[in-house]
């Protein structure tokens, strides 16, 4: 299974790819120079790292995602719940809501999610 974790800088880098894909590796290097103040070598090092994690691919100089942004964050969230709450979503929600009351809108949205997934 691929590693669905990125540090802060890698996350900013991944977001640049998701927002601009497909793009050439040269365009990515220019974008990273402008947005992150990186040298070309830094861009290629980080690109290789995220490609090794099977999140992106660089084929013939064209960079695209193998894992979409929403899927990535969903998998990252699932890993967090697994590690921090032994996979228990109810324990996670109890911890999440212990600091404050949920709004009626949040309760409604959560109930819709539960209802949608009840019959799966």
How does this model look, in words?
With 120 residues, this protein is mostly helical. The protein folds into 2 domains: 8-69, Orthogonal Bundle (Arc Repressor Mutant, subunit A), CATH 1.10.10; 88-120, no CATH class. The chain is built from 6 helices and 3 strands. The chain has helices at residues 8-20, 25-36, 40-52, 69-85, 89-97, 104-118, and strands at residues 23-24, 56-59, 62-65. It has a 3-stranded antiparallel β-sheet with strand order 1-3-2. Strand 2 and strand 3 form a beta hairpin. The longest helix is centred in the middle third of the chain and has 17 residues, at 69-85. The protein is elongated. The two termini are 24 Å apart. The model has no long low-confidence stretch (mean pLDDT 90).
Descriptive key words:
120 residues, elongated, 3-stranded antiparallel sheet, single chain, mainly alpha
């Amino acid at each position: 299974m691929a590693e669905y974790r990125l540090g802060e800088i890698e996350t900013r880098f991944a977001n640049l790819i998701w927002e601009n894909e497909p793009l050439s590796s040269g365009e990515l290097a220019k974008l990273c120079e402008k947005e992150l103040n990186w040298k070309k070598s830094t861009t290629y090092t980080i690109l290789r790292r995220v490609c090794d994690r099977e999140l992106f691919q660089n084929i013939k100089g064209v960079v695209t995602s193998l894992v979409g942004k929403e899927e990535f964050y969903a998998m990252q969230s699932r890993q967090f719940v697994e590690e921090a709450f032994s996979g228990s979503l109810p324990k996670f929600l109890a911890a999440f809501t212990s600091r404050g009351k949920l709004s009626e809108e949040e309760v409604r949205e959560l109930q819709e999610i539960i209802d949608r997934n009840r019959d799966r």
